Hints:
By secondary structure, the chain is α/β, with parallel strands linked by helices. It folds into two domains: about 15-405, no CATH class; about 415-505, 2-Layer Sandwich (Transcription Regulator spoIIAA). The chain is built from 20 helices and seven strands. Strand 5 (about 455-465), helix 20 and strand 6 (about 485-490) form a beta-alpha-beta unit. Helix 8 (about 170-190) crosses helix 15 and helix 17 packs antiparallel against helix 18. It is found in: Membrane. Keywords: Membrane, Transmembrane, Transmembrane helix. Pfam families: Sulfate_transp.
Amino acid sequence: MRTRVTQVTGLPRFPHLRQDLAASLVLFLIAVPLGVGVAVASGVPAELGLITGIVGGIVAGLMPGSSLQVSGPAAGMTVLVFEAVDTYGLPALGVIVLAAGLLQLAMGALRLGRWFRAISVAVIEGMLAGIGLVIIAGQLYAAAGLEAPASGVDKILGLPGALQALPGNSGAPASFALGAGTVAVLVLWQRMPRLARAVPGALAAVLLATGVTAALSLPVATVEVQGLLDAVQPPRPDDFALLTNPGFLGTILAFALIASAESLFSAAAVDRLHDGPRTNYNQELMAQGTGNAVCGLLGALPMTAVIVRSSANVQAGARTKTSRVMHGVWLLLFAALLPGLLALVPLPALAGILVHAGWKLIPFRQLTALWLAHRGEALILVATAVSIVVINMFEGVLIGLALAVVKSAWQASHARLEVIDKGAGPVQVHLTGNATFLRLPRILETLESLPADRPVELDLSGVHHLDHACRTALENWAERHGTPVKVTGGGVRSAATTDPEQPVTPA
């Protein structure tokens, strides 16, 4: 479904206030459970997820860039945030997010936003798949009320043992059942009657889980509440000393690049859902940077554009950016006036929401399509996901990018070598395509297998690109060949001649 969007210009006007108000309420109801769930899964106070949602709605929502895209805490950053907090501590999170936001602002000012569209889709989908696997594995432990291992591999390998130990842990079976029930509600909610589906599935699942927990007095953990002001932890001067740590700088770079890529890929997806103004990628990158700089100053979670909330915004009938700003206002009022309600929410329910979100990050259909049409891209996707699980998120993405570059270079250097031997006269060799050092071993292997007692005619007129390594190797081969070599095109010569149309004889 594509929705027509009207861009508001000039003095502030609200020609679509009714539609935007309705959409903002839907966004608010989605943002509360998702924001709290992402915060808890990231190992930070629940209120920080709401703060990031508030900044994403009000600050980023007011800035130009994208019409209907909604920003806030994202499940895709959960693994990276958890690793950063675990390594450097919660006080350092504000410095990381602030510096990442400033880096995004610089990239937007340098008009680098459009270059994020050049990142291989296989790498992005592999990144999301790897994140999804780690989220699912980690939140299965949280659903059972158990402590998850630190690494992604240990999380996955330890699942069978954790499941076997469930019956022996007091309260674990009830906790896990509540989490599984939350996932079931989310899966089945789309099959409910249209009237029921007016309530977002995540909110319905949390409300049902909260009601069941209270009614049955289940021994499960609930969200710890500090209060909005107590959760705000601006960076202290001492925290900035970590900027001299190379690993810390690498974490900042990872935050900036991954948040930017996720936001701009989300923008491209949202643009396909409506007929309104297209996203200005550089402006959107600066909007994300501004939002993250503010989040960093407040010590909150990093902000990215979120496809789930953005698509819900379009489907709810939003027409202007007013809807996303108002949803930030509702989050602010809720966090300021009703924070005690969060203390009633059971943690297994939030874990169930994150398991469902992690499952949706894994691109099963895209992987199947890639395997059938572009197996190289499918292998890059899988390699990126596995690297994230086995090593960590930042290095996993770098491995995926390196593989994509190597694959592109290999394809760009595609060359075809055809040998025609009629049994008498010279052997004809036709080289076409892009002859680079990547194809040089195969080219030389074929040329050196030609009979040394027969003249050779090497036709390079079909070569689009001949790099220096190939040119030098062909000249050396022509000099060493036992009989005259006639080279046509390509400008290849030996020490025996400077005319590529003349026979090349051994020196």
